[in-house]
Amino acid sequence: MSLRVMERIAVVLVLFLALMLGVLSSSGQLISPSQLEMFVDEIQDMPRIQGFHVVNGVSKSKSLKIGMFKKHWKFHRDLPPTPVYAYGTSKHTATVPGPTIEAIHGIDTYVTWQNHLPSKHILPWDPTIPTAIPFTRKGIPTVVHLHGGIDEPESDGNSNSWFTAGFKEKGPTWTKKRYHYRNMQQPGNLWYHDHAMGLTRVNLLAGLIGSYIIRHHDVEAPLGLP
Ligand SMILES: [Cu+2]
User: Which residues form the Plastocyanin-like domain (predicted)?
Assistant: First the structure.
């Protein structure tokens, strides 16, 4: 074993010890999920945003603006408010999961996703994997992917089409601010979520997820659902 290899092992051991000490010293604040009482909070119904207008009884396309905000969120009666990233039309109304977007089959929905996040992430992220890193090292890269949506590539939330707050910095494949969802596919429940290169994991864990429903009257009406 060369001296260099031993040095590296020593460094890894020291880092591991530091980590263990950190875990032990903060364990007084960690809450075991098994100690939380179940079924004490109402299941929340997320705010709904219609992805269409109704003019004289006819559905028409609509443009939405949905932001990403840092705020605090209560996950359980006995947990303190937790820092999160939340989707919403304002910081005040933003939720985790984000608002449910309701679209109608065949009616275009446009969404301008706006990043209002601060410069530093609330969660640690792994810099050793390919990651969206702004040139200035400030800002949290985000880009929204409508999971299951059949849409043009420019609106599909390519991992390298990320952008930071105010579109200050953008990834190499970024093309436009306003995403176009055609809603031409089968009706059903989709979800939208962050998709930034190397940060998807932490951005979702921070709260950047939400539902997207495509409705189709002719398919649903004969079912007579409540
Ligand atoms: Cu997905």
Answer: 141-216
